[in-house]
Amino acid sequence: MASELEPEVQAIDRSLLECSAEETAGKWLQATDLTREVYQHLAHYVPKIYCRGPNPFPQKEDMLAHQVLLGPMEWYLCGEDPGLGFSKLEQTNKPSHLCGRVFKVGEPTYSCRDCAVDPTCVLCMECFLGSIHRDHRYRMTTSGGGGFCDCGDTEAWKEGPYCQKHELNTSEIEEEEDPLVHLSEDVIARAYNIFAIMFRYAVEILTWEKESELPPDLEMVEKSDTYYCMLFNDEVHTYEQVIYTLQKAVNCTQKEAIGFATTVDRDGRRSVRYGDFQYCEQAKSVIVRNTGRQTKPLKVQVMHSSIVAHQNFGLKLLSWLGSIIGYSDGLRRILCQVGLQEGPDGENSSLVDRLMLSDSKLWKGARNVYHQLFMSSLLMDLKYKKLFAIRFAKNYQQLQRDFMEDDHERAVSVTALSVQFFTAPTLARMLIVEENLMTIIIKTFMDHLRHRDAQGRFQFERYTASQAFKFKRVQSLILDLKYVLISKPTEWSDDLRQKFLEGFDAFLELLKCMQGMDPITRQVGQHIEMEPEWEAAFTLQMKLTHVISMMQDWCALDEKVLIEAYKKCLAVLMQCHGGFTDGEQPVTLSICGHSVETIRYCVSKEKVSIHLPVSRLLAGLHVLLSKSEVAYKFPELLPLSELSPPMLIEHPLRCLVLCAQVHAGMWRRNGFSLVNQIYYYHNVKCRREMFDKDIVMLQTGVSMMDPNHFLMIMLSRFELYQIFSTPDYGKKISSEASHKDLVQQNSTLIEEMLYLIIMLVGERFCPGVGQVNTADEIKREIIHQLSIKPMAHSELVKSLPEDENKETGMESVIEAVAHFKKPGLTGRGMYELKPECAKEFNLYFYHFSRAEQSKAEEAQRKLKRQNKEDTALPPPVLPPFCPLFASLVNILQSDVMLLIMRTILQWTVEHNGCVWSESMLQRVLHLIGMALQEEKQHLENVMEEHVITFTFTQKISKPGEAPNNSPSILGMLETLQNAPYLEVHKDMIRWILKTFHAIKKIRESSSTSPVTETEGTVMEESSKDKDKAERKRKAEIARLRREKIMAQMSEMQRHFIDENKELFQQTLELDASISAVLDNSPVVSDMNLTALGPAQTQVPEQRQFVTCILCQEEQEVKVESRAMVLAAFVQRSTVLSKDRSKFIQDPEKYDPLFMHPDLSCGTHTGSCGHVMHAHCWQRYFDSVQAKEQRRQQRLRLHTSYDVENGEFLCPLCECLSNTVIPLLLPPRNIFNSRLNFSDQPNLTQWIRTISQQIKALQVLRKEESTPNTSLSKNLENMDQLQLPEGFRPNFHPKNPYSESIKEMLTTFGTATYKVGLKVHPNEEDPRVPMMCWGSCAYTIQSIERILNDEDKPLFGPLPCRLDDCLRSLTRFAAAHWTVASLSVVQGHFCKLFASLVPVYNFGDLPCILDIDMFHLLVGLVLAFPALQCQDFSGISLGTGDLHIFHLVTMAHIVQILLTSCTEENGMDQENAAGEEELAVLALYKTIHQCTGSALKEIPSGWHLWRNVRAGVMPFLRCSALFFHYLNGVPSPSETQASETSHFEHLCNYLSLPNNLICLFQENKEIMKLLIESWCHNTEVKRYLEGERDAVSYPRESNKLIDLPEDYSSLINQASHFSCPKSGGDKSRAPTLCLVCGALLCSQSYCCQTELEGEDVGACTAHTYSCGSGVGIFLRVRECQVLFLAGKTKGCFYSPPYLDDYGETDQGLRRGNPLHLCRERFKKIQKLWHQHSITEEIGHAQEANQTLVGIDWQHL
Ligand SMILES: [Zn+2]
Ligand SMILES: [Zn+2]
Ligand SMILES: [Zn+2]
Ligand SMILES: [Zn+2]
Ligand SMILES: [Zn+2]
Ligand SMILES: [Zn+2]
Ligand SMILES: [Zn+2]
Q1: Which of the 8 DSSP states describes residue 141?
Q2: DSSP H/E element including 1652
Q3: 3-state SS, residue 951
Q4: Please, what is the Cα angle at 703 between 698 and 707, to 5 degrees?
């Protein structure tokens, strides 16, 4: 850094460095015209400091600016050394109680749901943790930047406004002290002077619009001729466009262009070229030309460098002011005064006004700086906050107008400050009263929505992008209105009443423009040509929903206001309906002797609109009148006489009829826009102020009119009047079979109408309509939601309407109606309905959608069946209506209603197919049930002497009247009770009859003496037998249904398999895979099972039969038969790695023969265990490949697997695979024919023999490679060479395997090589066998780790897939040498052997500290046959295995002793030294000697032995697995159970002495030599001298990083994280690597790097070093786990954080507090340990195709 800066420093004008702050300040103190003096100083110096070249040098500029410009000001202000002055100020300061911390992007913020006045009141993390709210119900979000902490604002919190830190001195806040008293007169005067000048300067220069000319008082004498080409940001052009254009225009690299674009996006502008005017102008024109083709061009200005310099300093100055006022509240107040002081030009001329009013002209960076200053000054001083608020309100209209034209997001607009004033209750009220704010906002809003139709209603044209943009901006006004209304007044002054009502008038004007907007007419004949626009109107309605509700809430608070508002609303409604009854002659309707007049109107023929906000507001107010009892107290004040019920109901009724007709299919030709409108009309987001209020309005109307009249009008609007007024309609219709569609349509309409009547009578859970409270209303909603199915908290929240504070009120009542069931390892916590609440279930609950209704019906009936109850779902008992609505119930017993009921029952009795429907009947039965419940209630609650006017039972007992003389309703019900075609409804009819009789009994008992109960019981008895028969029949129906479901189930099974992979595999393997009887039923006695060596337990040959999953053919696994293969997936791995910084640098040169003990760069093989014929697989793979090629030509899409890289999905389980492993018999048995146990060499002899053989081979090899020796000479030499006895190096054994197996051996070997080294396949490469052995060893090690970490027994029940995989992999690796070049394998063996026994100089072999002994063991054992096959001296393979194993084990023990941590860790020796301890101590001494005493002295053999035992254990366990799978010897049963460590059992099984040290003693001589040779290695010496490190044993398992309990601390951590590449910028998508804990700046241009020629994001780049291409991340801001594999694959995974309701919150949308779920985190860790991340991604991508399209490499 220093060297880079040097030339720059030299270039600095010496005069700058010599300029003394103190002297300058001194001059200023003397000055007569301070302004002139300061301006001259600035004019002279600013251009010398800023903008001296094409690129800014912030450090240099800051340094100089402080020295030359700001320093003098600080001196001037303090009158002394500012270091002293400011600290004095700080000491005398009485700090404010406001926290005021301004939030950074991504910083966590907290809001208390119990105490915050509204959701915009938030705390910073520090204040939150020190507040009482941390124990309340809080919500957590991440800030989008801007806004500040409300701690200390007493208006923001109902309780606990201070945190501990800000609570200090709260006693003093009452008295509003002037902070200036703490400052001296001098300081005050100087502060005024300097602030006034500097603030003015900053405002002037920032709002300066000329491009090449400075304000006159800043103009310089000598002016340079340098310009900038300044590029500004907008929200039209994309990053890519800007980058592309810049490369063209200013001829820069892509990287530079990205840099420019990033800065433009962040700061709002950036100079892209520096030079003379022409030069800059040229760049400008290219940019404008290039970006102006389709859209508005990018904004570019050519600005003189001195202007830019002054502007840069202006920004610096504002930040400086912000920091200076932090020293003292007094200085803050002075700055506020300066800012708000009216300037010379009067109104709007204060500096604050000037800044606000030029907001939209400023660039982003400038706006951010001055907004911040406002926040830390004006908004922190309560007195000036108020004055500022007034200025803001006065400028409101202008600011909004500017904002509409501005193209920046709202967050960087000054209008976004509204939340700071409008949500503060006293300020908001002050602004309403003094500035008429409500009216201003609404009027401004109306001004911006100018398009009206002929009737003056809003008219939205087709929604273009630019309109949508503008419309979105207009909506922020609604947000402001919401802010103003959010805190409701506790007291009303006359002024407030007057201004509120004025605002209400304006609001009614707004609603009037919406009443009847977007009218529609039914389309007949042709389908509509173009879907009409509907979204804008609904967006408006949706945004206004809360405002409408809040208006009503305000009205409810004051009776006078309520009455006035009601009158106003009614008046406006009448205006809307002006001329409503004029024109055509009314029609007269008459039924049952009642008649009524109504207008002619037909929904299906005339215009109808779904938007009726005025009617709905009136309905809301009417309910309030009823609730607050104003209607009874001052009826004379109300315009009740003016109400015309028919007029009130007309429009809501039309709207409901429209819905019914749409449902009946009459509006099919009107397209989707109508369907959408109907959907939203009922949707939870809108229904409160739409559908619900329409129901209330009808209820209001009905309660004020004759129910018969209402019903007739309703029949007429439903266009059903004819049907019910014509006797014998049913008969007529059924004779005319031609009108089938019409009949169907009418049936639906009748059903809908009945449903509407049910709702009108039954929906009384709105406080004011029925005698209920808000809690009852919510309870009922929840009960009905949970009647459908148990639900998670978030699901339930979504189904309930939220109020303006985003609360549903659910938490307060949920306990009363539901039980909570905790979640398991997956899934979510669920609420279940309490059984006792089921009786409140109403099948015709008005907020059910049709689908929900039928689901709920089914669920409830099922429940009843389970409880062995009858399945009737009778209407619940309802709360009584409020008096204003009380007469509504009479609709049930009105003549027209009875006629409708009777008619439908009649149709049912007649049972002629087409006119009646089951739904119709069900609804009639429900209505009858409701009437009976009503009557029962009346009887039960009757007061003495009261006449009961509700006499439904009497009415239905009477037969119908002339002319058709039908039987009574009751009679018909009794008839229907036995109708065979009404099976489903029988329970309900029976319930009705029972209730009827019960009511009769009550009536009789109340009128006369108690009556006997006979009637009821008799009836019940008689029906008992029938019951039985019925139940039997029902059982039969149920059985049939079950069968049908079973059939569907098998269909669904495929999906099930996907979801429950592991479970499925474990069960399925039993028949589909290797019928492995080998393992768990040992043939030989357990006691002396030996896995290897000459004494190896002989296992009888097991025949193995497997079935191909592709052709279903069974085949035996044999050496000579066709190959059977397992689908397998090979991947590189760092899961066991102890050093993740290591990775293969140059794969072409990398030598994998020796694995380093840090286990970096492993190759893992996994398999789903599914078996196929090799040729079946080949055919399958070819077809996949062909299909893929065709598909890629058609659509260039990715799949979840990469065919070009050999990837495919297992045809059975769709598991990602990239090769296949052949199935083999234990390969050793094939070569064991020459077994001879009689005379086997001991270790020393064996080593000698092998060493000789190796020497011989090496000599031969050397001969061969010498070019001038002919073949014959070669042979001669061989004779000369003393070949060890029985060794025949020119013998080449015959390969026993069939061609197809050989081919598969090569296939898998090559795949392992290709993937493991990331090279092109080359089956000839000598490294192929090494990779095979390595993968075998690594895979065994990783499985041993998992078993160990999970405390599972080594040979416990392993999942079949793992078992199959390990067996095949081991046997494959053992057989692979048969297809490799013999001399290559021999060469490997020689080298591996030489690493332990120095027989031949191979040059650079690793020392024993740098060899993973298990990898070495596997390599030696598997390469050995290549040497042994030429040995005819009688040494068996088994002998070799045993000696190799013993040798490696001893080397490992030496390795452990060399590296064991020698701390005694305070553990005491338990008992006297045993045999092992003494032996290990002796061995240690030997090593000690060999190392020349460099090894530390160890006093205790006990500790040593413990170390050795613990250190060698993983190796022994891996070896046991290896030999078990290699030789097929069953494991001892003890090792199949956990508990102990099984050290002895393992030793027995592995043919080792229990005292491992005995191995050394038995082979004393040779071991002494070997130990010496190992210890003399220079690397070992360096280690012992502390010059290098080595891995010690046992190695610890890798874990994912520790995560904090509380998620917010992660957010906080991430919010402090800044992008490492763009100098302190906050990262937008901070992402945490769960493997190593690195925080990355994901998903952004700044941190893209190039990887293998492609640009990749920070995460993908990180995976290459950290996880060999696989990565596990946590996206902190999204609370989402991200899995990545390679460049194209990835998926999101559910995070290990849950809220109290057992749910995750991906995207942090709900903001409930989140806590770590350890089980789920373990599950992720397990996926990682099991190498299943890639597989998981594959499954996720198969299940969700949209994941395939994501550009994972850019994350
Ligand atoms: Zn705070
Ligand atoms: Zn605080
Ligand atoms: Zn609280
Ligand atoms: Zn097959
Ligand atoms: Zn499979
Ligand atoms: Zn990492
Ligand atoms: Zn970055």
Answers
A1: E
A2: none
A3: coil
A4: 90
Whether the pLDDT of residue 691 is over 80: the answer is yes
Task: Tell me whether the omega of the peptide bond preceding residue 1157 falls within 30 degrees of 0, making it cis.
Answer: no
Centroid of ligand 3 to alpha carbon of 1630 (angstroms): 30
Distance 1223 CA to ligand 4 centre (A): 13
CB 841 within 8 A of CB 848: no
3-state secondary structure 1462-1523: CCCCCCCCCCCCCHHHHHHHHHHHHHHHHCCCCCCCCCCHHHHHHHHHHHHHHHHHHHHHHH
Least Cα distance to 214 among 304, 294, 300 occurs for 304
Listed in sequence order, the residues at least 6 apart from 1236 whose beta carbon sits closer than 8 Å to its beta carbon are 1434, 1436
Strand order across the 1219-1222 sheet: 1162-1173, 1124-1133, 1219-1222
Average pLDDT over residues 606-625: 94
Question: Would you mind telling me the total number of residues written for the chain in this entry?
Answer: 1755
165 alpha carbon – ligand 3 mean position (Å): 16
Taking the centre of ligand 6 as the mean of its atom positions, its distance from the CA of residue 1638, in whole angstroms, is 6
The reported pTM is 0.80
Ligand 3 centroid distance, CA of 582 (Å): 58
CA distance 714 to 708: 10
Two tokens, residue 684:
């939870």
C-alpha of 782 from chain center? 26
Cα 1126 to Cα 929: distance, rounded to the nearest angstrom: 66
Q: What is the CA(1133)–ligand 6 centre distance, in A?
A: 13
3-state secondary structure 723-738: HHHCCCHHHHHHHCHH
Q: pLDDT-based confidence at 734, cuts 50/70/90?
A: low
Spatial separation of the C-alpha atoms in residues 284 and 269, rounded to whole Å: 14
Q: Which residue has the tokens 């779920």?
A: 1717
Dist. CA 116 → ligand 1 center (Å): 14
Q: Which of 137-151, 338-352, 749-763 has the highest mean pLDDT?
A: 749-763
CA of 1633 to the centre of ligand 6 (A): 5
- Read off the pLDDT band of 176 (50, 70, 90): low
| Gap from CA of 1174 to ligand 4 centroid (Å) | 7
| Strand 1630-1633 relative to strand 1639-1641, pairing | antiparallel
What are the tokens at 1535? 């090792």
- Give me ligand 3 centre to Cα 797, in Å: 21
Quickly state the pLDDT bin for 636 (edges 50, 70, 90): confident
- Ligand that comes closest to the CA of residue 1623: 7
CA–centroid distance, 1246 to ligand 2, in Å, is 79
Structure tokens at 875: 């209407």
Report the alpha-carbon distance of residue 755 to residue 710 in Å, rounded. Answer: 15
* Measured distance CA(18)–CA(812) in Å, rounded: 71
In three-state form (DSSP H/G/I as H, E/B as E, the rest C), the secondary structure along 788-825 is HCCECHHHHHHHCCCCCCCCCCCHHHHHHHEEEECCCC
As a whole number, the mean pLDDT across the chain is 85
Question: 1445 near 1421, Cβ under 8 Å?
Answer: yes
Q: Find the ligand nearest to 1640 CA.
A: 7
* pLDDT of res. 1744: 81
Note residues around ion ligand 1 (Cβ under 5 angstroms). Answer: 99, 101, 124, 127, 149, 151
Strands (E), 298-422: 300-304
Instruction: Quick: pLDDT tens for 488-531.
Output: 898 999 999 999 999 999 999 999 999 998 899 998 888 877 77
Interatomic CA distance for residues 782 and 791, integer angstroms: 10
> Terminus-to-terminus CA distance in the chain, angstroms?
31
Give the DSSP letter string of 264-327.
HHHHSEEEEEEE-HHHHHHHHHHHHHHHTTTSPPPPEEEEEHHHHHHHHHHHHHHHHHHHHGGG
